[in-house]
């Protein structure tokens, strides 16, 4: 129970898997206010620079206290990974806005990149972190929001997230690959006949090593164009083969985070 609201959290661990999965369902009773109380009543004004929904400290959070000194924060963005330079993620006014958005994952490591923990999220949401505040995942807000709309609770909270404790930095831990595997898991299919031996393995493209992601595949005339993203910044030479053709031309550009393709 969270106050008077029943909840169920399923935690899944698997042998040989780094990731620990969480599935939370919280059945709200009614529409409780969740968040800062600032101007939540009739005194709310759209032109006010301060808003209650800016401040994540008073929202429903899943917290992950870590005994890591001098913590550094990394998170992914479209085709990029960035290191946060913020001392904390908290703000209360529009002109004090900070980037506290998680696209797929956010990670915390110690100052020496010896060990850390990554937090993966199913919905794109915000995270909380500060020098005196543990890593947190924003799960719920209820109250006045953008353009004066009242963001009410109209159903249960149903959310999935995961954590990965790891050694080394985010790229050493192959976090981009872990995130891809979690967001796009292998799907089993029921077959109505025994497959031929040639059907046990079918692949359009083979890549040696890890850290590469096929981000787009398209035809231009008779040419098949494949875009491959080097998600973990490894500059080592990799071999890419098209298994359906006897020749393959590779144009490779290895870049560090901040622009790799």
Write structural notes for this entry.
With 261 residues, this protein is mainly β. It folds into two domains: 7-183, Beta-galactosidase, Chain A, domain 5 (Distorted Sandwich); 201-261, no CATH class. Helix content is 3%, strand content 36%. The protein is built from one helix and 17 strands. Strands 1-2-13-8-7-4-5 form a seven-stranded antiparallel beta sheet, covered by helices on one side. A four-stranded antiparallel beta sheet has the order 3-10-9-6, with no helix packed on it. Strands 11-12 form a two-stranded antiparallel ribbon. A hairpin with a 2-residue loop joins strand 15 and strand 16 (223-230). The radius of gyration is 22 Å and the shape is globular. The protein starts with 6 loop residues before the first strand and ends in a 19-residue tail after the last strand. Mean pLDDT is 87; it is low at 246-256.
């Amino acid at each position: 129970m969270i106050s008077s609201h029943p909840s169920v959290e399923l935690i899944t661990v698997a042998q040989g898997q780094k990731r620990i999965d969480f599935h939370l369902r919280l059945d709200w009773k009614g529409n409780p206010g969740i968040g800062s109380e600032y101007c939540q009543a009739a005194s709310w004004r759209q032109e006010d620079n301060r808003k209650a929904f800016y401040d994540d400290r008073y929202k429903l959070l899943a917290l992950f206290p870590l005994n890591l000194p001098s913590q550094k924060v990394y998170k992914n963005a479209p085709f990029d990974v960035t290191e946060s330079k913020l001392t904390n993620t908290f703000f209360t006014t529009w002109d004090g806005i900070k980037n506290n958005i998680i696209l797929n994952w956010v990670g915390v490591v110690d100052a020496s990149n010896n060990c850390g923990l990554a937090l993966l999220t199913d919905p794109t949401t915000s995270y909380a972190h500060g020098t005196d505040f543990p890593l947190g995942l924003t799960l719920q807000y209820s109250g006045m929001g953008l353009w004066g709309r009242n963001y009410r609770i109209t159903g249960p909270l149903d959310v999935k997230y995961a954590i990965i404790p790891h050694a080394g930095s985010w790229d050493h831990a192959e976090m981009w690959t872990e995130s891809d595997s979690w967001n796009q898991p292998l799907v089993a299919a029921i077959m109505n006949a025994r497959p031929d031996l040639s059907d046990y393995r079918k692949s359009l493209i083979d890549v040696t090593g890890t850290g590469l992601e096929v981000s787009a595949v398209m035809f231009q005339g008779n040419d098949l164009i494949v875009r491959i993203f080097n998600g973990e910044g490894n500059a080592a030479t990799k071999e890419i083969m098209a298994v359906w053709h006897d020749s393959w031309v590779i144009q490779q550009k290895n870049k560090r985070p901040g622009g790799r393709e």
